[in-house]
Amino acid sequence: QEVAVKLESQKARHPQLLYESKLYKILQGGVGIPHIRWYGQEKDYNVLVMDLLGPSLEDLFNFCSRRFTMKTVLMLADQMISRIEYVHTKNFIHRDIKPDNFLMGIGRHCNKCLESPVGKRKRSMTVSTSQDPSFSGLNQLFLIDFGLAKKYRDNRTRQHIPYREDKNLTGTARYASINAHLGIEQSRRDDMESLGYVLMYFNRTSLPWQGLKAATKKQKYEKISEKKMSTPVEVLCKGFPAEFAMYLNYCRGLRFEEAPDYMYLRQLFRILFRTLNHQYDYTFDWTMLKQKAAQQAASSSGQGQQAQTPTGKQTDKSKSNMKG
């Protein structure tokens, strides 16, 4: 069986793979969390071995010519909210929510628990790959890359970390919350706000603060921050269902220690989904494209060779605390 291997030089200035492996261990068993096979040292590297997953949402967005239908965005939103909620229940915040850190499965995770897209209870299903493909791991979204994650409350006492205002920006500036730009300690609300920007990125194709030029990284982040703060939510979400503005306004209105109402946010999008008469059939935009590409390749080669579709990959890169 193929696996993904994440390598980090033992000479890395800011080693984080051991930390990340410990975090994965805490999260093991959650829906949409990759299964960790092994962590250790090999030659000059720290090594993390995990299940191989499919392409990231950024890969798939590019594969779909940077256009997602509302149906695909809403089906993704449902799973993304649930993934973040699960990490939060384990007392951690992710702090780098972006399309590159959500990966689709490759259809080998079928015996794992999948949440029901409708209704409040999670249901555990054992599904063989030959059965209903709707519930195969192919349609399951995974959250990865916990190198920047942080514990926000104590397991035993449930004591929340204190409010602070002297923090450097952690994560990716494009999707960072306004408070993260302002140097405020991140909490659950910031992961949720970042997700709001990811959803609008999928809706709009790009965000108003993309492509800003500046002499230094610091100046670029300041420009992004200014543009983000000066763009009203209603302007950002103009031309799209009101639920997206409602989502962002709700997240921006959360207090530092406040628990987001994840079910309320999921229901916002589920009700919209039903109002638009979509079927929750796990047919994403890329599902059709890949089928067409495979058929074309099969007919053109006559040997059934597979067309070029995004491949499963997890990038091995050390992160600094500040990224553009």
From TrEMBL:
Catalytic activity: L-seryl-[protein] + ATP = O-phospho-L-seryl-[protein] + ADP + H(+); L-threonyl-[protein] + ATP = O-phospho-L-threonyl-[protein] + ADP + H(+)
GO cellular component: cytoplasm
One BP term from GO: Wnt signaling pathway
Region: Disordered, residue numbers: 297-324
Biased composition (Basic and acidic residues): 314-324
Listed PROSITE patterns: PROTEIN_KINASE_DOM (PS50011), PROTEIN_KINASE_ST (PS00108)
Regions of compositional bias (Low complexity) in chain numbering: 297-313
UniProt xrefs under Pfam families: Pkinase
GO molecular function, one term: protein serine/threonine kinase activity
Keyword Protease: no
Keywords: ATP-binding, Cytoplasm, Kinase, Nucleotide-binding, Serine/threonine-protein kinase, Transferase, Wnt signaling pathway
Main location: cytoplasm
E.C. number: 2.7.11.1
Domain Protein kinase: 1-273
Compartment annotation: Cytoplasm
Family label: Belongs to the protein kinase superfamily. CK1 Ser/Thr protein kinase family. Casein kinase I subfamily.
Protein's name in the database: non-specific serine/threonine protein kinase
